[in-house]
Design goal:
InterPro entries: HRDC-like_sf, RNA_pol_Rpb4/RPC9_core, Rpb4/RPC9, Rpb4/RPC9_sf, RPC9. The protein is mainly alpha-helical. It is built from seven helices and no strands. The chain has a single domain, classed as RNA Polymerase II, Rpb4 subunit (Growth Hormone, Chain: A, Up-down Bundle). Helix content is 62%, strand content 0%. Helix 1 crosses helix 2. The longest helix has 33 residues.
């Protein structure tokens, strides 16, 4: 392999995950991830990068043009996917003193364009399922107790 450019720029977590996925799904069956690559792959599969697509990332970058953000700030927003204004303030340098940045609108854009990490979606679905199961168990226990009292 020949290195064309030593440093071509920073990558989003999605781009790194996409590269690792293509390496795993390559045609050469001998190609495997090294232990460090596997750890990165495993970590990124649990982040928002695992549910992002190139179209979503490009759409978000286009949406951010109106906010006058630095490329590094956009990259961090894509990677971190802040869901509150507090999180945005930690990403954008001198956010409160910069004009042209409506943090509330930026958070809305993030939430609308960038998908939530799978752990949040699974947690919400799992919590609902666990709640339904708990209610069913309580009803079953109450029925058993009622039957024992009447017997």
């Amino acid at each position: 392999m020949k290195i064309l450019e030593e440093y071509a720029g920073a990558l989003t977590n999605f781009e790194v995950l996409d590269f690792l996925r293509s390496k795993v799904n390559g045609k050469d069956p001998k190609t495997q991830l090294s232990p460090s690559e596997f750890k990165v792959y495993d970590y990124l599969e649990q982040t928002a990068a695992s549910v992002q697509t190139r179209d979503i990332v490009n759409k978000f970058i286009n949406e951010c043009k109106s906010y006058d953000l630095a490329p590094a700030e956009i990259l961090n927003i894509i990677n971190i996917r802040p869901a509150s204004e507090v999180e945005v303030y930690t990403i954008i340098e001198d956010c409160e003193n910069r004009s042209g940045i409506d943090t509330e609108k930026l958070v809305e854009t993030v939430v609308q364009v960038l998908p939530a990490p799978p752990t949040e979606m699974e947690h919400d679905e799992g919590a609902a399922a666990n709640e339904e199961e708990a209610v069913a168990n309580e009803e079953e226990t109450a029925d058993k107790d009622q039957n024992e009292v009447t017997a």
